Automatic annotation (TrEMBL):
InterPro entries: Hypoxia_induced_domain (IPR007667). It comes from the Bacteria. This is Membrane protein. The chain crosses the membrane at residues 6-24, 44-62. Residues 1-65 form the HIG1 domain.
Length: 65
């Protein structure tokens, strides 16, 4: 179970990085402000999911005890 959670955490963290880069590229190209806003909202949601998964993984594995 912890391997699955670790994999899911890494996957979501990768998605956060991808969305962040897409947002930066959109901003650098002078893209739509609406698109930048949607990417920011998606990034915040993915970061929240990543934090929950990290905490769940630490709780299940004993948190390094």
């Amino acid at each position: 179970m912890s391997s699955f959670l670790t994999f899911m955490t890494l996957l979501v963290m990768g998605l956060v990085a991808i969305v962040l880069v897409r947002g930066l590229v959109n901003m650098a190209k002078g893209g739509s402000g609406n698109t930048s806003n949607k990417l920011m909202q998606l990034r915040v949601l993915l970061q929240a999911i990543a934090i929950v998964l990290i905490m769940l993984t630490l709780w299940i594995t004993g948190g390094g005890r």
